[in-house]
TrEMBL record:
PROSITE patterns the UniProt entry points to: HTH_LUXR_2, RESPONSE_REGULATORY
Protein name: DNA-binding response regulator
Every HTH luxR-type domain range: 144-209
InterPro entries: CheY-like_superfamily (IPR011006), NreC/VraR/RcsB-like_REC (IPR058245), Sig_transdc_resp-reg_C-effctor (IPR016032), Sig_transdc_resp-reg_receiver (IPR001789), Tscrpt_reg_LuxR_C (IPR000792), WalR-like (IPR039420)
Molecular functions (GO terms): DNA binding
Keyword Transcription regulation carried by entry: yes
Keywords tagged on the record: DNA-binding, Phosphoprotein, Transcription, Transcription regulation
Amino acid sequence: MLVDDQPLIRAGFRALLEAEDDLRVVAEAADGREAVALARRHRPDIALVDIQMPGMDGIEATRLIAADESLSRVRVVILTNYGLDEHVFAALRAGASGFLVKDIEPEDLLRGIRLAARGEALLSPVATRALIDEFVARPPEAYPKAGPDVLTRREREVVRLVARGLSNDEIAAHMVISPTTAKTHVSRAMTKLAARDRAQLVVYAYESGLVSPRASRQ
């Protein structure tokens, strides 16, 4: 599903996506309110959502989609002109699986959509570092105190590594386990924490205090 208030932008994305054999645009929306309604009607795998739109913006639309249990399989990918900023951070907390800038190369856009469809977060190590820096800027009392008690020791370690921006293969190498086992640990942690994807694990790791932003920067 394409969500953008500019028809020309939507037309460009549609032309690019529908040239691919494995991708199909099932709906288009011009604002957040319409996006939520169409998401409930069409249940897309991916929703490409612009942040800044008149009426309901992309952040609120993301929050409503993420909160709807019937839309738990919908992955929201935020579209932005500016890269990481406070709007992107807000969208990630609201439940977005990641973000893409609008001037991205076509092949990178397609790759990003396919990654999101597989449940992977569109957060590079650079983006993860920016998230850490943003959390560091907060006063200590801004962090929730609830601890990740539901996780096993191995799962806590995996979440810490996810929060550092490591892939499953990198986690496996670091922990000296197989990539399949690493993936299983990540999946179980996501299930226990009700996280939609890895992006939500990153946010959870810092907001819960499982990982210290200040320690991560050292």
